[in-house]
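so my prof wants the structure for this chain in the tokens format not the other one, which i didnt know existed until like an hour ago. anyway here's the sequence
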Amino acid sequence: MARRNRKKKKYWSYNTGERGRNWVRCYEDGKSGKLYLEWHEAGRRQRVLVQTLDRDEAKRRADALATEIGSRTDVEPVACISISDLLALYGKEVTPNKGESKAEHDGRATRVWRAFFNAQAETERRSTRQPDTLDRTDWDRFCTWRREGMIPGWTRGVGDRQVEYDLKFMLAVLNWASGHKLNGRTVLETNPWKSEIRRNQGWEMPKEQNPHQPSMSDDLRAGLIAHAPNKEFGAMLVLERETKRRNSSIRQLLWSDIDLTGETVTWRAETDKSGKRGVTPLTQPALDVLRALPRGVGRVPVFGGKDGACRSRHTCQTWLRRAKARWIADIPEAEREALKERLKGVGFHAEKRSGVRNAEFRRLSPAVQEAISGTSYETLKNTYDKVGPEDIRAELRAVSGGS
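here's what i got, hopefully its the right format
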């Protein structure tokens, strides 16, 4: 049966004022038939019911409200605040409240954006302009320049994932400015890059189509552990695969989280990416590794430094780089390039990928997979199921009995 082409019914509406300054809309609700006034103030959408069904009266009220908003000084942006000033303000008021790695990313992203704006041939597109003048040209040009290494001081081309990180930083700055006041005045009346604009105009956020997400094969793990700078590094690798958890959770484990008698581990909400507390059983290899480590009591880190704090992410990454460098230096020169290529992108998270890609693990029910790994089943299915040649070879060898 042929489908009827039904036109969507249009309801009455009236717009007045100037977009980004004192815009007001009066419209008829499609379900109730009532009239509403809608406008933006302090970066937020406001709406009130008009106590009349007279459209002419509603128009007059919309015009009056637009005039009132336009006359207020508290809804005007701060005079002459530039993009450069906004980045500095964000770095002063927001960045210090973030963790070490996030704060470091903010600082780097700020330098990238400043270099990008100040390299523009058109003076009106440099960082001295006001942030509400940002448009699609800036968006598209940044994507191209960053991807192709055209930004002065950042001449190494990057992938879409890095471009996405940098764009999201600027979006975070603009979103924060939309609701922030300085000296009693709104920093930014409306976000020029808000999602509605990007969606309606078809702006594309760069996405890595084929990200390199390798697993940790048994021989790579054995080689890294054999050249590890210390026992803690090898223990972390084993625990990450056996527990299917992220390195951030592993390195922040406390001995009070470990129950060797009950053979369980408690994952605290504050150290887990999902923000949820969970208790999971420990496998025998995980128990063996934990029992071989120097035992602490109470809230003592399982992997702690001399200062008594948990090992930092940067320390763990240093260990990983040293293990790779030692292994590469320990083999004949003719074999080094091949090993470098195999080790590319292989880190702590490769162990989690190996654990959750395991055929036996994937035969468990979705709820159990989520509970063990601390990752939603949708993410396990849509992200972690993407395998590479090494994963395929390993599984084929296992099926064929190693032949």
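also thought this was worth mentioning. Residues 100-118 form the longest helix (19 residues).
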